[in-house]
Amino acid sequence: MKGRIVNCTLKQLGTVGLRKLTMDSIAGELHISKRTIYQHFSSKDQLLEACLMEWIRRNRLLVATGDNLIDEFCTLYLGFRRINLLPVVRCCRELRQHFAPVYRFFLERLNDYADACGAWAERDAEAGYLCRAFSPQTVRSVVSDFLIRIFGSAEEEMQYRSYLLSPEILLVYIRGLCTIKGRALLDQRLKTLS
Fold it and tell me: How far apart are CA 59 and CA 88, in angstroms?
């Protein structure tokens, strides 16, 4: 039942938006009572957190999926290529304004992901894929900054920012971190993905 509620909520979010979403409309579409929803989710915030995590999982964003930073950036790159960022930016703005605890939850996931990227950077430098000149903290900061700029930017700035924050910037960044061995792996992964 939890999955059905989350799927219905995601569907409604895509059509009516975050602010117009109600527990009544979700219950009505599923032909269940609001009480049934509250048996699975104690609040609208908790339901929105579950929806956010499901959206992230479906789009393979902020989810550790690879064995190394190169694989992770390739997966993240493809995830960003699949989504339309404008509605995502609008949703993030509404979360920030009207559901601050859910937005903080999202930022925590973003920072957890950036931490994981920093840890991979250290491991990948030892394996010879990344230059040792870049610290894990630098990688973590750049990843966090990139994601916050995408998910935290104002809607009005999105058209301008889309040039600066296109998914391709991830590939430029990781290529700059790579050794010759790492670039060969990156090129192989990109060839496999296309």
Answer: 12
Global pTM reads 0.80
Residue 67: predicted pLDDT: 79
Task: Report the SS3 class of residue 178.
Answer: strand
Tens-digit pLDDT profile for residues 21-47:
889 999 999 999 999 999 999 999 999
Structure tokens that stand for 125 in this block: 């430098």
Confidence check: pLDDT of 155 > 50: no
CA distances from 108 to 2, 113, 148, 180 (A): 23, 9, 11, 34
Render the burial of 112-138: b for 16+ CB within 10 Å, e for the rest. ebbebbbebbbebbeeebbeeeeebee
Cα–Cα distance measured from residue 88 to residue 66, given in angstroms and rounded to the nearest whole number: 24
Residue 156 has pLDDT above 60, yes or no: no
37 by Cβ neighbours in 10 Å (0-12 / 13-18 / 19+) ranks as buried
